[in-house]
Amino acid sequence: MTTLDEIKALVDSKNNAVQQRVGEKRALERRMVELDTEVQDLSASILSIEKAVWVLQGYADQQQKEVIEKVESVITSGLQAVFKNDTLEFKLYYSETKSGAKKKAPEITMAVFYECDGEQVKGDIKNSFGGGLSVVVATLLRIVFVMYLSGKVRPILFLDEPLRDLSPSYGAGNDTDGYRSRMAEFLRTLVDDAGIQVCLVSHEPDYSEISDVDYRFYGGIGSVPTVKKKTKDSIDGGM
Prior knowledge:
By secondary structure, the chain is an alpha+beta fold. The protein is built from 4 helices and 9 strands. It has a single domain, classed as 3-Layer(aba) Sandwich (Rossmann fold), CATH 3.40.50. It has a 3-stranded antiparallel beta sheet. The chain has a two-stranded antiparallel ribbon with strand order 2-3. Strands 6-7 form a two-stranded parallel ribbon. Helix 3 links the parallel strand 6 and strand 7 (about 195-200).
C-alpha cells in the first residue's frame, strides 16, 4: 500500500520534470527568436552583398567597355591615317562562356569593317590591304595595351622592326606619302598625346626623322660599330 509521503514525493518529482520541460521549452523559444533574428540579419547582409556585387559588376563592365572603346578608337584612327580610308573601322568583341559549372577564359575576337562599292563589308585582318593591315593592327595593339594596362608604371614600349612587312609606298606613288611614313607620323602623334615612350629599332629613315633621339650605328660585320647620337630636344619621354 502506497503511503501519503510516497504519493507526495511522486507528485513533487512529476512537478520538477514538468518545470524542467517548461524551462527547456522557453529556452528553445528564445533560441528560435535569436535564430529568426540571425536569419533576418543574414538575409539583409546577402541582399547588401548582392547589391554590392551588382554595382561592382556594373562598374567592371563599364570599365571593360571603356577600355575596349579606347582600343577601338586608337586602332581605327591609326588605320584611317595609314590607309587614307575614312570608312575603316576596327572592332573588338569580348565574350565569356561557361562549360557546366566552370567558367572558361574570355574570348576576344577582332574584326575590321570598311565600305566597298557603297556597302559595308567585313574585312580579313590577315589578308586585307595586301597583308599590311595586320601589320599595322599588331603594332597598334601593342601600343594601346601599354597605354591602358600599365597602371601607375610609366609606359615604355620596345619595338624591333615593327613595320618591316608594310609596303613603303603602295597606293601612294612615292615613299614620302606611303604607308610607312603615315604610320611614322601617327606614332609620333600617339606618343605626344599619350605620354608614352617608344624605343624603336629600324632601318627606315622615316622613324628617325620623327624621333626625339636618334642613335645611328655604322660598321660592318665583325667590326665594332660607330654610334652617332642626334638629339632634337631635351625631353622626358617620347621616341
